[in-house]
Predict the structure.
Amino acid sequence: MGRSKVNGNKKHDSSLQQYNDADGHFSLVRNFRLADLVTIMNGVCGSFSIFSSAQYLLTNDDDYLLWALALPLAGLMFDFMDGKVARWRKSSSMLGQELDSLADLVSFGVAPAVVAFAVGLRTYLDTVCLTGFICCGLARLARFNATVAIIPKDAAGKSRYFEGLPIPSSLALVAILSYWVRRGWVEGKQGIPGGLITLWGTPGGRGDIHPVSVIFGLWAAAMFQNCDIGW
């Protein structure tokens, strides 16, 4: 067992050393695997979703909002593909693991929250719920990276269970927002379902909240809880 641990440490150190090799130009790019490039496309989809939401807020053009809702789904396709490519190429890396988590945070954490803001969850308390959603997703991904080595794997090398709700599940929230958009239940049209309530102070102040924003808070709690979700 001691020898296995030593060999494991040597392999770990070797994996780290390749990223410390900065000889020549674009050394980081030269260390990319094909699966890493697929993972980056996930992050590209999430980034374009965020910018599309921003364009909607500037122009009020529904096409931008539809793109913002569709692009996280495209990101999910790349998220599925990167693992398959890594197993097909029999090539994985520590960089790929970190890239995967960062891309997931952009596409399934930040992008859905920004879309929700664009749709109309814009009060101070709404943004508190959305920020909590992003931060819990961030913490959930960090915990996964820290514990993935000790989670049992199946024959294909995939984890047998996850701790907490996986962050790509936030696409269910994106689907709800898409339904609202199709029905015109957005700010400036028919309004957000459930309306707006004031918890304290005067209407229009920091005590205003759309009750449906609590859904993002509950989703955040589900990602952060300790229940093991198996497959």
Notes: The first strand starts at residue 161 and ends at 163. The chain has eight helices and four strands.
